[in-house]
Each structure stands twice: as structure tokens, then as C-alpha cells.
Amino acid sequence: MAETVIKFDNVTMKYGNIVAVNNLSLELKKGEVIGFIGPNGAGKTTVLKLISQLLRPNFGKISVINKYGKLQNIIKDSKNLIEMGFLIDIPHFYNTTPYYLLKYIANIRNYPKEKINQRIDNLLKEFNLFEWKYKKIKIFSKGMKQELGFIIAIIHDPDIIILDEPQTGLDPNARIQIRRFIKSLHQEGKTIFVASHMLHEIAEVCDKIVLINQGMIIGFDTIDNLENLIKNTEIVCKILHLIPPEKVNAILQRLIQRLTPYLESEFDLEISTDLIKYNPQEKSLIIRYDGKEESRSQILSILMNEFNAEFIITSFSKPKTSQLEKIYTQMIHDIKK
User: Fold this and answer.
1) Which of 17, 61, 21 is nearest to 45 (CA)?
2) Any idea where the domains of the chain sit in the sequence?
3) Dihedral sign, CA of 206, 208, 213, 215?
4) What is the pLDDT of residues 110-151, one digit of tens each?
5) In the sheet where 313-317 sits, what is the strand order?
6) CATH 3.30.70 at 233-336, yes or no
7) Engineering a disulfide at 54: which of 49, 65, 225, 288 sits with its beta carbon 3.0 to 4.6 angstroms away?
8) pLDDT digits (tens, 9 = 90+) for 154-207
9) pTM as predicted
10) DSSP secondary structure letter of residue 142
């Protein structure tokens, strides 16, 4: 069983009368990538600032593994901890260059001096910033500064990496690159804690998800296990050609009649309004079914054999991103009841 590297014990953090983190208990295991999601004001950034010791909790204990393999209360003693890297909030830099900034960070983080220059070059090349190595950071775009902030978090090759909205301000190619790099860090055995509003990012890279609302954890597990906590499940069926507009309603009615035994029986209209929807922009059918594997198999068989004259299926899947959105929406809805 993987060892615990970060542990929260009944941690509470207040800003005046506002409770940002409410009696939070949580354990992160070595080598896991944990996603942290919640609405604005849910407490995500506060939790990350507590780990990074930018804030001290009002109550509770935060422990991080030290160089001797023991959990250590960082509120009482922050010496001899294993290396950690942080990207907290939107980074701001002095008006220097990436080379001098990264060299300074690597030095104070005790990265081997003889390897610093090569490490800097490799990471700048990885994020297409090498030609900006000696340029003043003040002329960088928001996305370039965010990429530089990510490099700063990992320049010293830390064992634990804490990332707050790492894809803020990035273009699609840069977001893909960040996700790819997080996956490579995961393969190296790093422990990574990612807070993000971008559910696609979370679903793509994380082993487990922490759902937080009003400073409290409302769910913590794998996406698949969290999915089992809700009743509604979704299939996206991509089709090759658009359905003629005049045929859409008739085909949907026929689909509902034929697939009724396998569709969600206790349908929550606050989550969605249709059991089967057609999205012409995406050339897809969205089917809300009962979540059973045998039902999914039957639905695919019926679509392939009985509706092949109406449309040709190109893919048939449960998208993790939409499932994550649905899980979170349902849990928030259940709390408000």
C-alpha cells in the first residue's frame, strides 16, 4: 500500500467570520495525481496555500512526509521535508529573464549545480520558451508567464508538486503540453495535487478527484467510483452524417420507445431535460441510461442493428468530462436539499 505523503487532520481556516476550510481531513498517497475541483470560493486555493505554508490554519494539523520517511507536522516544524514545488495563483515575477530566475530558484532549492544549465535548457525547450531564455519577463504574454510558473514549480525536480489552475491563460496547444507533462511526471512517481476549473484537464490526468464545496469535502474517490454514487449516466454516440432536420423528432421518439428498458428510470429534470438528445453541431446523440454495463451493450446492439438506416455510428463512449460535471452538479444539488 502506498505511503501517505500529505495529511490534513480536521483543518479549519477562517478569514474573519468566513470559513474557507471547514474541518477538512484528507490524505494524499505517494505517486497519486489528485484533482481538486469546486466553484469559486469553495476553498481550493486556501487548501493549497496551507500545504505551501503561505497560510496557517486556525485549527487542525497538516503533516508532510520528511526526508526520513516520517510524517511531520509542518505547523510546528518545516525543516527536513522532502522537496515540493508550487504554482499558486497567477505567478508574478521580478523584471528579470527566465534564465536568471530559474537558476536562482534551482540554487536555493539545492538542485545539483552542475546540472542546472542543462535542466533549464531542457524545460524551456519543452515549453517552447528557449528562444526567450534571456528576454525580459515583462514582455511575456499571460500564457508564457503561466508556463514559466509551471517550470519554476518543477525546476528542482520535487517529489510533491502542487498546482493551482496550471492551465490558466494557455492556448489549446499549451494546455495539451501541460497535461502531457503532468502525465510524464506521474510516470516518474511524483505526487501531484491539481486544482482546476477545467474538468477535461482533471479527467485526463488524475487518479482521484476531491470535490469541495464551502470548504468541505463532498466526495473523494476515482471518477468511476464517484460515478457509482449517482443514478444518471451518459453515453455519447457520434454519427457520421447529420440527421435531416425533418427526421430528427421521429427518430428520437423511436429511439426512446425502443431503448426505454435501458434508460434512466428516475430521471432528474434539474440535471437535464431529455433522456435522448441530438446535437447537430457535434453530430452526436446523448443518451441517458441506467448505468448498467449490460444496458450499454444492449443499447449499442440496438443502434447498430435497428437504426443503421438512419445513421452510421463512428464512436460510442462515456465521456469522463461530462460525467465529472454531472457528478459534481448532482452532489451539490443533494447537499442543498
Assistant:
1) 21
2) 4-222, 233-336
3) negative
4) 999 999 999 999 999 999 999 999 999 999 998 899 999 999
5) 276-279, 284-289, 233-239, 313-317
6) yes
7) 49
8) 999 999 999 998 888 788 888 888 889 999 999 999 999 999 877 777 778 888
9) 0.74
10) H
